[in-house]
Amino acid sequence: MPEEEATVSIFDRGFLFADAVYEVTSVVDGKLLDFDAHMARLVRSLGELEMDMPLDRDAILEVHRELIDKNSVDQGVVYIQVTRGVADRDFLYPKDAAQTVVMFTQSRKLTGEKKGLRVVSSPDIRWGRRDIKTVQLLAASMGKMAAYKQGKDDTWLVKDGFVTEGSSNNTYIVTKDGKIVTRHLSNSILSGITRAAVLKLAAEQGLEIEERPFTMDEAKEASEAFMTAASSFVTPVIEVDGTELNGGVPGPVSKRLNEIYIEESKNTAI
Ligand code: PMP
């Protein structure tokens, strides 16, 4: 329906409790990248919150495709959000609320040359279940705003001395001896769909990968750095907390991984 006609109740638990999960799937050439991996993560996020899928995979795919078509999306993203639904405000989950399902598209250019980003660290004040993709995004939004106020592009969040992830992306450094280091999966970070795809491609390229936490000091010593997200693929990072990496220009590993990720994703897009 036209966006002006779309409404959600003020009693929706997504609004009152951030009791909702979401996915963002990228679109290139009008086709969806990694759609099934996003749906698998949606099922998992819902399951962790004792919710079921509101529609099956095929029905969601059909609506995604219809939206891409109706909005003439060549490159961009499709957003889906599922809330527990509408109920009288209560901390206990309602038994019989009908889930609210919202989907929309955003057109934006995703491919092409990328400028490197400058990032600054900030404390990771988010909750302890960052593996669930909930719409509780205010802490990340505050971190990104703090970075913008310092004239930077994004923030890398730090908990107990180690980088967890970016405001809306997974983070990586490439050590001087060529190893890719990225934090291991746990409740501390979101298991990125792009992360999984890029690590697989990196391994196929013969690159060595270490899944472990790293510090901002280690990042400052890195030969290059980058981050991944469905909506921005592999994005080079050229400065961390005021220290320029690779002479302040995107490094070869991140550039190459971005190219092969896009190439591979286009081949498997649906
Ligand atoms: N971490 C966080 C906190 C995110 O919000 C995102 C973007 N959804 C990611 C990582 C990257 O995940 P994906 O590659 O699945 O987009």
TrEMBL record:
Protein name: branched-chain-amino-acid transaminase
Keyword Transferase: yes
Family: Belongs to the class-IV pyridoxal-phosphate-dependent aminotransferase family.
Catalytic activity annotation: L-valine + 2-oxoglutarate = 3-methyl-2-oxobutanoate + L-glutamate; L-leucine + 2-oxoglutarate = 4-methyl-2-oxopentanoate + L-glutamate; L-isoleucine + 2-oxoglutarate = (S)-3-methyl-2-oxopentanoate + L-glutamate
Pathway: Amino-acid biosynthesis; L-isoleucine biosynthesis; L-isoleucine from 2-oxobutanoate: step 4/4; Amino-acid biosynthesis; L-valine biosynthesis; L-valine from pyruvate: step 4/4; Amino-acid biosynthesis; L-leucine biosynthesis; L-leucine from 3-methyl-2-oxobutanoate: step 4/4
Tagged with keyword Transferase: yes
Native species: Pseudodesulfovibrio sediminis
GO molecular function, one term: transaminase activity
